[in-house]
Amino acid sequence: MDEKISFIPKRNLSSQPVSRGGGGGFVFLSFLIFVLSAALWGGLHLYKNYLSDNIVQLGKSIEKQKASFEIPTINEVTGFSEKISVAKKLLAGHKSFSNVLDFLQDFTMKDVKFNDLNYSFAETGESALALSGTTKSYASLTAQIQALEKYNQVRQVSVSGLSSDGRGMVKFNLKITLDPAMVAYTIK
Question: pTM for this structure?
Fold first, then answer.
């Protein structure tokens, strides 16, 4: 029994053919993706540094601009701006009755005479006129109502209390509901 049993092969391993089957393309693609990822990471890192430097420079520029402002002048302009804002709010809420009188002057027929005027302003923003008057005939009263209804800022016209006095005149009461824009204050 000179023979020894060995599990190590006796032939030369280098003489066996090495198989290079298709793995080279995958390795190349992997390497290419790695290089691209590294380049992208480096580019993003440089861009981040550029943005950080830019932010610092802009901050310094803003601080220089702030230092160049004259604080008393800024306070004066700000105070004046607030006063203008308050004045605008006051004027926006102001009601102008003179617009209603101008409306009556422009749209009252010459045969119609108003004896009493009562003006009211509702919480909803609508204003109303309660008028009592006289006219020569029912036809002139109808013409007056039609003239009022044609005006775009009149929402409603209602008639009541129709009667005839001893002199042949027609007595009437009118209630005119007006658009809130009519009484809004406007600078002319």
Answer: 0.51
